[in-house]
Amino acid sequence: MTSLHNVLLLGGSGKVAQLLTPLLLQRSWNVTSIIRDPAQIPGLEKLGEGHSGKLNVLVRSLEDVTSEAQAKSLIDEVKPDYVVWSAGAGGKGAPERTFKIDRDAASHFIRASVATPSVTKFVMISFIGSRLKKPSWWTDEVWQEDLDTTRKMLQRYYEAKVAADQVLYEEGKKRSDFAGICLRPGALTLEPSGKVRFGKIPVAKGTSSRASVANLTALLLDAPNVKSCWLDMLDGDEDQEAAVKRVIDEGVDAAEGEPFY
User: HSE on the CB side for 27, CA within 13 Å?
Assistant: First the structure.
């Protein structure tokens, strides 16, 4: 049996997080799920039934985490060895709320995690268009389409996510025993988990099953040799277990070409 792990799941009420929670619990891992609304507690606690791992639900507002010290306080309380960021403003509230949660709070938790020796993995759920430069495996047409559509429609979200993704990459390189993994799906769907395109993908548009995102997150947390990296992900034709093994064995990193790579 896999040894017991403690996972801090930030944004525990989101669709991906709710699919991920039982996948972690069935591995006999403990999960502390952070949510904002106490009304969501009963529904989330049902996710913990019938599993060998223990689920703990904490009500905290990530929007109110305005410093690394505050993030560190929660990490010290929960004592995780793995952290998953599946939170976000979701376009709700004032524009600055996106920056407060998706960029600032995320960055505080990244830095606090790297500053905590017992935390050895951090998975950030981002999106495939979160990058500053055209990667070599995209054509000029793919890059321009991404600029013309995703960037314009999601400008604020893009700016917040790409900033946090950069922080995770740079901070993750500070410790050889820490893996900062940025998982970067396309347009999220409610389809069942299935086969994927994974790693460096020559297109920037496509669908990604939320269930596949959740399962890949669990597989990456479970993989002993994973290193800090960006991994783009769309629905495709490769088995997920094989895809995870391939990108780890080959050292695939979709951050290649970024100014901080």
Answer: 19
The residues near 62 (Cβ < 8 Å, ≥ 6 apart) are 10, 11, 34, 36, 87, 101, 105
Q: Amino acid identity, residue 10?
A: L
Parts of the chain with a pLDDT under 50: 1-2
| Non-local CB neighbours of 113 within 8 Å, separated by 6+ positions | 71, 75, 83, 119, 122, 178
Q: What's residue 2's pLDDT?
A: 46
**Burial of 39: CB neighbours in 10 Å, binned 0-12, 13-18, 19+:** exposed
What pTM was computed for the model?
0.97
Give me the long-range contacts of 187-194 (CB less than 8 A, separation at least 24). 188/15, 188/16, 188/213, 189/235, 190/15, 191/235, 193/240, 194/235
